[in-house]
Amino acid sequence: MKAAVLYDINTPLKIEDVTLDDPQENEILVKLEATGVCHSDLHFMQGDMPMPLPIVPGHEGAGVVEKVGPCVTTVQPGDHVILMVTISCGKCGYCLSGRPTICVENLPIQMMATLPGGGVRLHKGEQAINHLFGLACFAEKVVVHERSAVKIRKDAPLDVMCLLGCGTSTGIGAAINATKARPGESIAIFGCGGVGLSAVMGAKLLGAKVIAIDTLDSKLEKAKELGADYVINASKDDPQLKIPEILGQGANYAIEFIGKVDVMAQALNCIRSGGLLVIAGMPALLDMLTIPAFQFLMCKTITGTVQGDIVAPVDIPIYVDLFMEGKLPIDKLITRTYKLDQINEAFEAMKKGEVIRSVIKF
Ligand SMILES: [Zn+2]
Ligand SMILES: [Zn+2]
């Protein structure tokens, strides 16, 4: 089968014929219909986070289960699944207390880029190839642990639902789970890429007042279309001045989706006393955040979220239903679709800011 392989950081992905082993014990083989192209892939491909090479990136896959290992109980061949960027063991303290996105198995799998248990099922001749996030979705098929997959209804379009594997559920979850905003409270959303725009949709489901901030008017237009009450172009207006002008004071909540420390510091200045700043963007591993410590005497809180603190098997089917009912139009995030052999074009378009979200269709 074909897969897009990264052999070295800052080099184009190479479309290769690779071998995929059969699923073992708790693993499943999924024929992918589509994979979203996410900024996190780019971070890894640029070396912002170290990872073992060669590797097949891609972590927003959705498809149909083709084969299952002998111990699999949660899905069967023919099921439609979304593959999740975070895995949860279901047994550790975090999983058992309802915080599976910070499961103890998550970070090791991310760092080792293997399946849970340490194995890889991808090979090019004698060479083993790693699975980004235990997935490797820039490939026609994947073998993943069953706990990486969430079964969804069969009438939902997989080429849209794939976005829920990472970016979209991260944004929706960050707004809903990390802020827990009440109707009428204000949320300032920094960064209107696919994730931030998903947060706009999530915040509107809560009935919150949304202020969307970006430096590109095209993205702010999209934020308005998705329900943002106010937009600020940060290349023209300073959100630290503009938000108090709009609201009479700072926002109740701010969520940072860009992963830039100067934007995080700015976002902290944009919340009112007692407000909450949620960091959801992915900074480079060694970036340091410098903030005025006095802000804590204003009872401000800073917290972080990964994958929107969702409980995937519970929340993902709800988001799918909301999409099918027209209440969560995540299809509006997709600006382009590509074939696998055009994948480097997709990343070039992302770097230039030409797309909100693009999807690779197999
Ligand atoms: Zn766990
Ligand atoms: Zn992602």
Structure in words:
The protein is an alpha/beta fold and 362 residues long. Helices cover 27% and strands 27% of the residues. The strands form 4 sheets. Strands 4, 6, 7, 10, 11, 18 and 19 form a 7-stranded mixed β-sheet that branches. It has a 6-stranded parallel β-sheet with strand order 14-13-12-15-16-17, with helices on both faces. Strands 3-8-9-5 form a 4-stranded mixed β-sheet, with no helix packed on it. The longest helix is centred in the middle third of the chain and has 13 residues, at 167-179. It binds zinc ion (ZN) (2 copies). One zinc ion binds next to loops. One zinc ion binds at residues 38, 40, 59, 85, 166-167.
- Can you tell me the number of structural domains? 2
What is the approximate shape?
globular
* Count of separate DSSP helical elements: 11
Strand count, sense and closure of the main sheet? 7 strands, mixed
Uncertain spans = none
CATH architecture of the largest domain: Alpha-Beta Complex
CATH topology value of the largest domain? Quinone Oxidoreductase, Chain A, domain 1
Tell me the fraction of residues in β-strands, as a range. Answer: 25-35%
Bound molecules: zinc ion
CATH homologous superfamily annotation of the largest domain: Medium-chain alcohol dehydrogenases, catalytic domain
Give the % helix: 25-40%
Question: Overall mean pLDDT score?
Answer: 96
Instruction: Write down how many β-strands occur, each being a DSSP E stretch of 2 or more residues.
Output: 19
Question: Nutshell version of this structure?
Answer:
This protein has helices spanning 39-45, 93-96, 106-112, 158-161, 167-179, 194-206, 217-225, 239-247, 261-269, 312-324, 343-351; strands at residues 2-5, 14-17, 19-20, 27-37, 55-56, 61-68, 80-83, 122-124, 127-131, 141-145, 149-152, 186-190, 209-214, 230-233, 251-256, 271-279, 301-304, 334-338, 357-361.
